[in-house]
Amino acid sequence: MTQDELAIKLGVSKSTVSRALSGKGRIGEKTRDQIITLAREQGMLKTSGETRGTRSRNIGVVLPADVYSSGSLYFHDCLLGICEVASLLDYHVLIIIGMMNDIAGIRTLVENEKVDGIILTRSLEDDKAVQYLTDIHFPTGITGICENDDVIQVDTDNEAATEHLTSLLIGRGFSKFALIVEDLTYNVNRSRRDGFCKALLKNGIMEKNQAFYIGTLKKDNLDAIISDIMSKKVECIVCGDDTICTLITSRLQADGYRIPQDIAIASLYNSSNLNCFSPAITAVNVPAIQVGNMIGKQLINYLMGKEYVQKTKMDYEILLRKSSNGI
Description:
- The protein is an alpha/beta fold.
- The chain has helices at about 5-10, 15-20, 30-40, 65-70, 75-90, 105-110, 130-135, 160-170, 185-200, 220-230, 240-255, 290-305; strands spanning about 60-65, 90-100, 115-120, 140-145, 150-155, 175-180, 210-215, 235-240, 265, 280-285, 310-315, 315-320.
- The N and C termini lie far apart (about 60 Å).
């Protein structure tokens, strides 16, 4: 039973149910007791004899299904960081691989009490996993932004980082850009797009004069995208992440384009994948291992009843390199 269903059954609002289950906010004692009783009957709450954080000493880490095919190192590094801190705090990590909004694996671990908490490594718009976990008040962490204040969050300010990098590129003389990002249901991609547009606005550059490529990038449509970019006389390509940047840079160089003489390029996420290119690629550097360390530490501290931080912003670094030398 979800919070919505429980609210309808008892004839109260969802916010009243949420306050009763979380113990936050003012609510009548009789109403609270009715909500708690029904929630326990429906398996939404554990009985008082079950102590949070002492049942399994396992935490589940949810990795997206494309983590192996995409080649992005962010999720691997983030997982490594979580495993490091879990080991130090005598916890174990169980990995869940799932398609977007597929919560079957999460349900199995939660309902069979195999884990004490869950960490989501990709933040989605209208995330079913977040909805499910918060409805049952299951300890949850996420590497990314989330509108639900019950979720422990660790993230880099991707919007600010993108705005910062784009402004620096504008300062180097660029005014005609191509922005390439994939699925906008990923919160990080929306943040990066918004940061890019903010930088244009603040620097007096018309957004309508820029080239936007939004959606899945595949090897068989690279030629068409690059041809379109060059026909529009784009001066600098801003790639949404290291995977996109690797594909675009490889194809540009294979086609004989010189970087940055013919066109400049930058990535909104840096990884060792970009180290193979010459010249070196301008990028936003995010310490993904430390992000994993931090989300693991905060969730486990919560499970152990220790002091924890609900929302943490990690630092980033702009690496200005030769791939974006000014015009």
